[in-house]
Fold this sequence. Notes:
Layout: E1 27-30, H1 39-46, E2 52-54, E3 58-59, H2 60-65, H3 67-73, E4 83-88, H4 92-102, E5 108-113, H5 118-122, H6 133-146, E6 153-158, H7 164-177, E7 182-185, H8 198-207, E8 212-215, H9 221-231, E9 235-238, H10 240-244, H11 257-269, H12 274-285, H13 291-298, H14 303-314
Parallel strand pairs: 1-2, 1-9, 2-4, 3-4, 4-5, 5-6, 6-7, 7-8, 8-9
Amino acid sequence: xxxxxxxxxxxxxxxxxxxxxxxxxxxxxxxxxxxxxxxxxxxxxxxxxxxxxxxxxxxxxxxxxxxxxxxxxxxxxxxxxxxxxxxxxxxxxxxxxxxxxxxxxxxxxxxxxxxxxxxxxxxxxxxxxxxxxxxxxxxxxxxxxxxxxxxxxxxxxxxxxxxxxxxxxxxxxxxxxxxxxxxxxxxxxxxxxxxxxxxxxxxxxxxxxxxxxxxxxxxxxxxxxxxxxxxxxxxxxxxxxxxxxxxxxxxxxxxxxxxxxxxxxxxxxxxxxxxxxxxxxxxxxxxxxxxxxxxxxxxxxxxxxxxxxxxxxxxxxxxxxxxxxxxxxxxxxxxxxxxxxxxxxx
Length: 346
């Protein structure tokens, strides 16, 4: 684990994440996003009313076996809280092992049961697990048993079955096994652009006594209000919407200029790779700049060129003297180079 194993644990006085879920409050969550929801972006969205953030999905087996994988996939610090580490796993012992490793440096783990990508399902991960509710329950039980701190959460993130009775059954079995909450993407694994099934999410919420988080097509506070009103969920989780507008939970309809400034200062102060630095800005500008400008900006090939563009067009420049939440370096950073051909998966 980069920056973590040689330092003290961050969990002294850990506050249970479940305490975020209070009557009348909708918890704002940054989704696990492959290559994107790493430390610097989590730091950014926490400045804009994001209550809870997830790491990208990490393959539990390689994480447990390989120090190199841990160094590459997981970076955090004491300010990166509350934090949920999401794992892809296919057996209970491996998930429990991975949970034990990250427990001193996070607030909970999440089991990915929703990734619809072919490679994941072929390996027995993600949505493949939807057909194995007993295995999911066993993984929840063993992960919870392995970490003695009762404030450490164990959650699951799912997609819908074609037969919603199977989804409700899976969720109820997971609740009986001790799952802390369930995040539901309101589509089946085979669906992509179809509307989110809010009736299904509402049915799941009504069938459980634990918190439920809704995921899918959350792009602004109006969407948050709509899904909360129509389903009664306890929280909402945004992926592409928060990439395009990291200030969405603070009520901004478009990425505010201060958010761009914050990203420049956060990422450059801590040495974020150019591809990652640039691609996050491409997402932020996606809905606010004309096509002609996007073509120019997206074709830039160096940090210096991006900074020149930002200064000329928006008056944004890197401020190396900016403070970052009074944290010692590296503050909430640690991006690996992203594969820009791959979209985040909600």
